[in-house]
Amino acid sequence: MGKTIRQLSEELKLSKQAINQRINSINGFRSKHTYKVKNHLEIDNQGVKMLANFGKQKRQDRQPNQQDKNDKNDKIDHILLKQLDVKDQQIANLQQALDQQQKLQIATVTENHRLKEHIRKLSGLLEPSSATQQQQSNDKDDTLSNSINAIHDNDENDKQDQSHIVDEKKKRIHKNKVNKSWWHFW
Fold first, then answer.
1. How far apart, in whole angstroms, are the C-alpha atoms of residue 64 and residue 26?
2. What is the pTM of this model?
3. Which of 60, 57, 61, 62 has the alpha carbon at shortest distance from 47?
4. Residue 36 forms beta bridges with which residues?
5. In sequence order, which residues have a C-beta less than 8 Å from that of residue 2 and are 6 or more positions away?
6. Alpha carbon 1 to chain centroid distance?
7. Residues 111-138: pLDDT tens digits?
8. What's the rounded Cα separation, in Å, for the pair 156 and 75?
9. Run of H or E residues at 142
10. Cα–Cα separations (whole angstroms), residue 5 to 13, 16, 53, 110
11. Beta bridge partners of 35
């Protein structure tokens, strides 16, 4: 013989609403484990056992779910750890490349300083010969000034010759003008 919801709620020390919630949460419970007697609903013995063990069943259902969650979390942690390892390797490679770049930069600066020092030494060797170059430059200047003076003298002679020729032409033109005046035609 079954029990009513009121009897079951007193036995399990739950409210009638809690019993109804348990009944509704189990699929097909009403059709399989309940029947109507006069004006009230009765639950068979198997249904009573199910409702009494409902809390235990829920906990058992939750445990596999919790285990699944733990497994998923472990998988996610494993994936994240792998990604961290990859990122650490990438950072190490970038750090190594940066170190190489810095070493090359230092070597280039050192080489530049060495070459500048070498150029200074060479320019120091050229300083005494610089006086020779100065003497040669002065000789060239003298030669140029002599050439310029000669050209200048030639130009003055040419100008004098040209001015003499111009004077001659002016005299001729003047004679011709005197002769060609209009009153001479009369």
1. 18
2. 0.32
3. 57
4. 41
5. 35, 42, 43, 44, 45, 47, 48
6. 80
7. 999 999 999 888 887 765 555 555 666 5
8. 108
9. helix 54-179
10. 11, 6, 15, 95
11. 42
